[in-house]
Automatic annotation (TrEMBL):
PROSITE patterns: HSP70_1, HSP70_2, HSP70_3
Organism: Mikania micrantha (bitter vine)
Lineage: superkingdom: Eukaryota
Protein family membership: Belongs to the heat shock protein 70 family.
Upper classification of the organism: Eukaryota, Viridiplantae, Streptophyta, Embryophyta, Tracheophyta
Keywords: ATP-binding, Nucleotide-binding
Name this polypeptide is given: Uncharacterized protein
Coiled coil: none
Length: 340
């Protein structure tokens, strides 16, 4: 390279890259825009398990017996998404996110769909009727299956009964907890894989985790709790915070902290987050050059040297991507700029 190109810093606001439902840059921007359109002053976006960790931490920091630091694993299984986070909560009010993971397309709705599909097949078998093309019938069946799913968290068997479901035909069947667990075994195993991967990314063993905190309505499913206890060698699960309200509570606390409001504990809160995915740039006609690995503490600075393609090249075009695939076409495009 005969002409040296002046180094340029790639500035990406990594401190505001999380929200309750958004995991990629476009989703985060859409979430932030939605808040602005609603008349809200969007101070920061955080992910659900981090917000839950704030709620958990605030409830425990007042304890005089709180250790100097505590390793906490947040397991957040909601209706449509699944998130896990490994954090260290310090007695002085610091919350350090060590690793994050999960699946934005896994949650209670998947369990409902598995039940609905099973019922549809049973109806085909017994009544020779296919209701998949009838939106009203499918909607009624979904509501009934969701209620049965909730019932199975407190009983081992329940009934699904719908009058005149389709063409005057009544639908009735017994549904056991064992059948529910069988239908959703694949989803549940997937959840546990994400738990193990998060621990691996955080370089922490199960016996080093002090507390396992449950967040989200789907964590009430007995099989979820059983499998999670098995992963953590039968350590008791923490259910001290409201699974349905923890995220909103934690987000409100952080908003108070950023606004300078609240008591001393709230004002002293310090949250240090990590990048959820790899960040890099496109080189060699579409190859992803990774610069920041996922779970890198932020804010951060990294340097990497690249060569220009031609002698006396005056500028380079830098395309920034987020993702873990080797080809940028399979990752998420964030932005581009010219460096001279």
């Amino acid at each position: 390279m005969s002409k040296k190109v002046q180094a340029t810093t790639i500035g990406i606001d990594l401190g505001t890259t999380y929200s309750c439902v958004a995991v990629c840059d476009k989703q985060r921007k859409a979430t932030k825009d939605a808040g602005t359109l609603a008349g809200l002053n969007v101070l920061r976006l955080i992910n659900e398990p981090t917000a839950a960790a704030i709620a958990y931490g605030l409830d425990n920091l007042a304890d005089r017996n709180h250790p100097k630091q505590k390793s906490v694993f947040i397991f957040d299984l909601g209706g449509g998404t699944f998130d896990v986070s490994l954090l260290i909560i310090g007695k002085e009010g610091t919350i350090d996110v060590i690793a994050v993971g999960g699946d934005t397309h896994l949650g209670g709705e998947d369990f409902d769909k598995a039940m609905v599909n099973y019922c549809v097949q049973e109806l085909k078998k017994k009544q020779k009727k296919d209701i998949t093309g009838n939106a009203k019938a499918m909607g009624r069946l979904k509501v009934a299956c969701e209620k049965a799913k909730r019932d199975l968290s407190s009983t081992t068997q329940t009934s699904i009964e719908i009058d005149s479901l389709y063409e005057g035909i009544d639908f009735s069947m017994k549904f056991t907890r064992a059948k529910f667990e069988e239908l959703n075994s694949g989803f549940l195993e997937k959840c546990m894989e994400h738990v193990k991967n998060c621990l691996k990314d955080g370089n922490m063993s199960t016996n080093e985790v002090d507390d396992i905190v449950l967040v989200g309505g789907s964590t009430r499913i007995p099989k979820v709790q059983q499998m999670l206890r098995e992963v953590f060698e039968w350590k008791p699960l923490c259910k001290s915070i409201n699974a349905d309200e923890a995220v909103a509570y934690g987000a409100a606390v952080l908003a108070a902290n950023l606004s300078g409001n609240g008591n001393k504990v709230v004002k002293d809160l310090i949250l240090r987050d990590v990048t959820p995915l790899y960040l890099g740039m496109s080189i060699d006609e579409g190859t992803m050059s990774f610069i920041l690995p996922r779970n890198t503490p932020i804010p951060t600075t990294r340097e990497k040297t690249y060569q220009t393609r031609y002698d006396n090249q005056q500028s380079i075009s830098v395309e920034v991507y987020q993702g873990e695939c080797n080809k940028v076409k399979d990752n998420i495009f964030l932005d581009e700029f010219e460096s001279e």
